[in-house]
Amino acid sequence: MRSRSKGERAFVRGLVVCLLLLGLGFGLWQKDRRDDALVVYCAHDRQFAEPILDEFASRMGVSLIVQYDTESTKSLGLVKRILLEAGDPQCDVLWNNEASGTILLRSAGLLEPYRGKGYQRAPPHARDPDGFWVGFGGRMRVVIYNTERTKFDEAMAREVFPPGDLSRVAIAKPLYGTTFTHYAALWHHLGAEQLKRRHRDAVSRGLKIVPGNATVKDLVARGACDWGWTDTDDAFVAKDAGYPVAMEPVRLPDGKTLCIPNTVCIIRGTRKREAAEALVDFLASAEVEAKLAQSAARQIPLGPVDESRLPPDVRRLKAWAEESADVASLAESYGPCLKWLNAEFGLPAPELSAGAH
User: Fold this and answer.
1) CA neighbours closer than 13 Å in the CB half-sphere of residue 79
2) How far apart are CA 54 and CA 260, in angstroms?
3) In sequence order, what are the residues at sequence separation of 6 or more whose Cβ sits closer than 8 angstroms to the Cβ of residue 111?
C-alpha cells in the first residue's frame, strides 16, 4: 500500500481542521438560532396548531421552534419533559390540549403568572385564579353512540358506569388526556374508594379499555361497539365521514358537563418573556378561538366571540360548555388519581416533581 506524501498528509490534516471548524460553526449557529427563537411545546393536533403558530410568527416577526408530541401520550408526554428539564428549561411556552397536565406543572412551581388580554377575556372556570395559565378553545366529554345499534339513554351520560353488560362499550385508557381529566373529575365527586370500586366493577362487566379516544370513535362508528365515551373533536370526525353516530354531553354526579380547554402557560425561567406573553395573548384571543371553532375539530370558544362566525354545531356545544365544571377546582385530585391509575395499569408511579428522573 502506497504511503501518503507530505503534501497529501498536509491536505488531509487541513481538510479535517476545516470540517471541525465547519461543524463548530454550525453548532454555534444552531445555538444562536435556538437562543433567538421562542421554543413552544405543543400538544394540540399539528394540523390545527401549525397554521396558527405560523400566523403568529409571521405577524410578530418572531422565530419559533415548535416541539409536537405523539398521539398516545401527547399532553402528559410534554408535561413530563418539562418536569425533567426543570433545572435547565428548554421550553418557553406550553400549548397544552387539556388542563390537567398544566395544573400539575403549576403545582410543581414551574410556571410564571401572566394576566394579559387573553387572560382577562377568559371565564373564571377556564383560567388559573392566580394567572398561571389560561384556557381557550374547549372540547366536551361526550357519549358517542351508533344510531343504528342503540338509542340514547340518559344513564349513558349520567351514570358513572351504567349497570348491565358493558362488553359493547368502550373508553380510552385513562392515563392521559381528557379521559384522565374525566377520571379526576369523578375522583373529585365520588371520592377515591368509590371510583376505584366502580371502575373495577365496570371492567369485570366487560368494559373495553382501548388506547385512545380516536379508537373509541372508530369502534362505535363501525358498529364494533354500541357506544362509548370520547371527545367532541373525535365524534365530529366520525360524523363528517358519514358514519351513523350521534353525541350527548357527559354529566358528572352533580349534573355539570365537562368542557376541557386547551391551555397555554409560560414556563418558569424563560428568557423570552415579551414574546411568550405575546403568544399567550394571541392564542387566548377571540380571533384564534374563532379559527379553532371553524376548524374540523369545532372547538368551543370560551371567551366572548362574534357568534355569527360560529358553525351551528359549535353554537350547540357552546350551550353545553356553559354548564361545565371548573377544571381548576380539580387540582387536588390530579396527582393522587394519576398515581392510582398508573398502579391500576401496572405502571410505575409517575414522577410529578420538578427535575425527577
Assistant:
1) 27
2) 25
3) 102, 105, 132, 133, 265, 266, 267, 268
Amino acid in the structure at residue 296: A
- The rounded distance, in Å, linking the Cα atoms of 67 and 316 is 33
**To which CATH superfamily is domain 33-138+260-315 assigned?**
Periplasmic binding protein-like II (3.40.190.10)
DSSP string, 93-145: EEEESSSHHHHHHHHTT-EE----HHHHHS-GGGB-TTSS-EEEEEEEEEEEE
Cβ contact 300:257 at 8 Å: no
Report the pLDDT value the prediction gives residue 29, as an integer from 0 to 100.
Answer: 35
Burial string for 315-332 (b: 16+ CB within 10 Å, else e) reads eebbebbeebbbbbebbe
Burial of 342 (0-12, 13-18, 19+ CB in 10 A): middle
pLDDT attached to residue 76: 76
CA distances for 211 relative to 54, 166, 170, 307, 333, angstroms: 31, 17, 10, 35, 23
Instruction: Give the tens place of pLDDT for each residue, 94-138.
Output: 999 999 999 999 999 999 999 999 999 999 989 999 999 999 999
pTM for the complete prediction? Answer: 0.84
Give residue 56's pLDDT band: very low, low, confident or very high (50, 70, 90).
very high
pLDDT at 216 over 50: yes
Q: Is 246 helix (H, G, I), strand (E, B) or coil?
A: strand
The region, left, alpha or beta by phi > 0 then psi within -120 to 50, assigned to residue 305 is beta
Q: How far apart are CA 177 and CA 100, in angstroms?
A: 8
Checking if the pLDDT of 14 tops 80, the result is no
Type of residue found at 213: N
198's CB contacts (< 8 A; 6+ apart) are 160, 161, 190
